[in-house]
Structure formats: C-alpha cells, structure tokens
Amino acid sequence: GHLFQGRFKAIVVDKTSYLLELSRYIHLNPVRIRQPLALARYPWSSYWAYIGRRAAPAWLTRGAVLDEVGGRGPQAEQRYQAFVEDGAKAGVASPWARVVAQVALGDERFLASLRRRVPTAAHRELPSRRQLAKRPSWRAIERAVQAAAATLTALEPGRRRDPVRAVLVYVARERGGLSLREVARTIGREEATVSRLAGRVAARRRTDRRWDQAIARIEEGLAEPQRGPG
User: Fold this and answer.
1) What was the pLDDT predicted at 230?
2) How many helices (H) and strands (E) does the chain have?
3) Do 62 and 49 meet the contact criterion of CB atoms below 8 Å apart?
4) Which of 128, 130, 131, 169 has the smallest number of CB atoms closer than 10 Å to its CB?
C-alpha cells in the first residue's frame, strides 16, 4: 500500500512457499498504482537496495528474501531483479486473497503447524484465533446446530422465522469459513437471503445474552475433537 496506508499489522508467512512471491508483490506496488516506469522512479521503496543499486539501511534485512533466489551477493541481487521485472511484465496475482484469518499466509501444512502452536478455542473476542482453528465440515456444523434446535426455537416462540436455519447459516459463515455463495448453494437460497439471515443472528447475539450463550455452546462443541461413528 501507500506510505501511510492503514494501521500496522503482521502476517505470519510460510517462507518456503510465499515469502518470495509476497516480496515481489509489495515491490510492484508502484507499477500497479502508476505505470511500469514507476518501478525505477518510486522513492519510497526498498527495491533498489534489494537489487544492489543502493546501500541497504541498517534496519533493512534482505537475507531472508535473497536466500530464496540462491544466496546473497551480486548474483542473487540480479536474480531477484529479473524475478521482479518478469512480474512487472506478466502481472502477478495478489497473495492477500490467500491470507487465512488475516494473520497467516501459507499452505495447509503450514497452517496445521500454526494450529498446533496457537490456542484456537472459539472466542468471539478473538476472531483471528477462531478463524485459524481447523474448520469443521458442513455436516459437523449441521449436526451441532440441529442438536441445539430446541433451545434455538425456544428463543423465538410463536414466530414464523426458522431460527435453526438462520443459526446454521451464521455458524457456517463464522466457524466454517464458507462464502455467501457457498452457503447459498448448499441450502438452496439466494446470497442476499443468506446475508440477511447471518446478519440477523449476529445482531441478536450482540444484544441478547441468551442468543450469545446458545451459539457459544454450539461453537464450543465444534471446537472439540470430532468423533467418528460408533
């Protein structure tokens, strides 16, 4: 992003799979914002230090990235320059779409290693931790919500609305990590309907302690190890 964009945030990156790609994407910011020639003219970038055209300041650590192109020194700098310039010509996809829970970028094996080291109990005050937790299947979510059907129905006595369906949609979005489109396709509804259902449950959870407690129990059940049949 631009020099003063947003507040600071840190993302844990899988060095083997994504560090080099992420570094190139960041160094190509001026190209996306302006034009290809901007890469050579943009003053607020560490790119020239990475390719050896400018002395690296004391606070800049280049080694982790240059190691990914074969070590340090002039040859590594040249290889990194070629890698970035190839991206400027061909274009590169944004890696941000693959960030999980706004805190981690890596493949499934990398995410599994993080889950083993970070407590991932469901907690609505820690959304990133909740999203990083291993996502339950649709069947597991459906079973957990159906098991709480009597409690949920009692929260809306005499109403035509189906609280079980609404909570299923909400939990599938929040704990299952499913998109509006995926949920809509699964339950045979429109995306707008899915969005309204999830929003209604989220609002009830914020304003009604009984709703919050009922959904928290469902989430806690999903956070427990799932047992197989028998």
Assistant:
1) 37
2) 14, 2
3) yes
4) 128
